[in-house]
Amino acid sequence: GAGVSQTPSNKVTEKGKYVELRCDPISGHTALYWYRQSLGQGPEFLIYFQGTGAADDSGLPNDRFFAVRPEGSVSTLKIQRTERGDSAVYLCASSSPGVVNTEAFFGQGTRLTVV
Amino acid sequence: SQQGEEDPQALSIQEGENATMNCSYKTSINNLQWYRQNSGRGLVHLILIRSNEREKHSGRLRVTLDTSKKSSSLLITASRAADTASYFCATRSIQGAQKLVFGQGTRLTINP
């Protein structure tokens, strides 16, 4: 596609429920990132994929958060037993091979609200 | 954890004036990037400056980098109302170069 696509754009869920957030990166981009952004804050790094593997998952806050990218393209961020503190905008970004001196292209984000 | 710290946190100026935002960081970096965000959703890349560069221009944007002070500045000249947005610096460290680490951002308001 022309850009990074994230679905859904908005998600409201009840506390304790499970949610999946999807990211479809730019075709050919091997690097994929997930970030979380709370109101008035900068994006907080969660996890980075290079191809199918999670090269750096140091930003995942706890074991309720998990992400996969089974075919090296689409990625899904999964949150179990959601809590109100998980409410935020979840941003996905991708970049082309040769990661270091390249820009990241961001999707429009999924606004997650846990009630 | 956040590496970059922007200041000011908020800036309000009149249209036509220049806007300067600063970013400080803590570790040795490969590059520093500036992004813009409207309405709290997707970020748009503005400019990337490598650690061996000191200044870079793109249209009305001018970015400087001082690696000895671990700081960068973004200058927007002849500001327009459409420049109203949040601006973030992001760094790629030499260690852990895969991830971009963002600062808290500067909220810029251009008054017509």
Describe how the helices and strands are arranged.
The complex is a heterodimer of chains A (115) and B (112).
Chain A (H helix, E strand, L loop, with lengths): L4 E3 L2 E4 L5 E6 L6 E7 L6 E7 L2 E4 L8 E4 L6 E5 L8 E8 L9 E2 L3 E5 L1
Parallel strand pairs in A: 2-11
Antiparallel strand pairs in A: 1-3, 3-8, 4-5, 4-9, 5-6, 7-8, 9-10, 9-11
Chain B lengths: L4 E3 L2 E5 L4 E6 L4 E9 L5 E8 L4 E4 L2 E6 L4 E6 L8 E9 L7 E2 L3 E6 L1
Parallel strand pairs in B: 2-11
Antiparallel strand pairs in B: 1-3, 3-8, 4-5, 4-9, 6-7, 7-8, 9-10, 9-11
Describe this structure in words.
The complex is a heterodimer of chains A (115) and B (112). Chain A is an all-beta fold and 115 residues long. Chain A is built from no helices and eleven strands. Chain A has strands at 5-7, 10-13, 19-24, 31-37, 44-50, 53-56, 65-68, 75-79, 88-95, 105-106, 110-114. The mean pLDDT of chain B is 91. In chain B, a hairpin with a 4-residue loop joins β7 and β8 (71-76). In chain B, the strands form two sheets. In chain B, strands 2, 4, 5, 9, 10 and 11 form a six-stranded mixed β-sheet that branches. Chain B has a five-stranded antiparallel β-sheet with strand order 1-3-8-7-6, with no helix packed on it. With 112 residues, chain B is mainly β. Chain B has strands at residues 5-7, 10-14, 19-24, 29-37, 43-50, 55-58, 61-66, 71-76, 85-93, 101-102, 106-111. Chains A and B meet through β4, β5, β9 and β10 of A and β4, β5 and β10 of B.
